[in-house]
Amino acid sequence: MSVLGFLIPVAVLGLIAWAIVGFTRSRGAEPFTLATATALYARVLLIAGILMSLTGAGVILKAAFGFINLSYSYYNFQYAVGKPLPDGSVVPGPPANYFEQQRAQDLVLGVTLVVIGLLVAIAHFYLARAVARMPGGAPGWVTRGTLLALTVMTAIGGVPSAAIGLYQMLSYFIIGNLPQNQQPWGEPLGLAIAFIPAWIYAMTRLVSDLRSPPAVAPAAVA
């Protein structure tokens, strides 16, 4: 999951920038209250839960490709096994069921990530809804920032994975599954299938939200 390794530092930098924006806005027309802090927390964990579920879905797809053909998702050591070394010994290979165990572990990991991620996302979605009814519980920089952050994070997880997965899959089927260019494509392609639809949906919602005029608070009655 080399592509997903970029999500953590980007998420940390994004959270810092998000907090700076909130501090700046709190000095203006939108006061920073305890409800505002809770709303920010809820939406950060909502994004984390969604990303965890998408990652789990990608891992499940990787295992699914492995059920079709193990070499789609897991490196095949058969090219090195059996070659004699200078001292006359033979290169040892993995256990006979090594790749089946890896596939089963990926399946369990993927299901775990999906379940835990959904629970975290759902719990914090309802927390954000409850806090939104309170004064300062739904400022624009939090609500619209959520869509922006989700769009950026899913793009980082999906677009590079799609490029890498497509390249490796084409290399596998066109060049051939040779020892010098064997590149299992199940993992990046599985992540792309999971992240790309979420990225498109988040981007569509973000554009729609930006086009809609901001809500105007009703004037107070004397």
Describe this structure in words.
The protein contains 6 helices and no strands. It has one domain. The chain is elongated and about 65 Å long. Helix 1 packs antiparallel against helix 5, helix 2 packs antiparallel against helix 4 and helix 5 (140-175) runs antiparallel to helix 6. The longest helix has 36 residues, at 140-175. With 222 residues, it is mostly helical.
Helical amount among residues, as a percent range? over 70%
Ranges with pLDDT <50 over ≥5 residues? 216-222
Radius of gyration: 23 Å
Distance between the termini: 60 Å
Quick one: overall form?
elongated
Strand content: under 5%
> How would you classify the helix and strand content by structural class?
mainly alpha
The count of β-strands is 0
Domains counted in the coordinates: how many? 1
Mean pLDDT: 80
Largest sheet: none
SSE ordering: HHHHHH
Q: Can you count the helices?
A: 6
Protein topology:
Layout (H helix, E strand, L loop, with lengths): L6 H20 L7 H35 L1 H4 L24 H35 L7 H36 L10 H26 L11
Which properties best describe this structure?
6 helices
Summarize the structure.
With 222 residues, this protein is an all-alpha fold. It has helices at 7-26, 34-68, 70-73, 98-132, 140-175, 186-211.
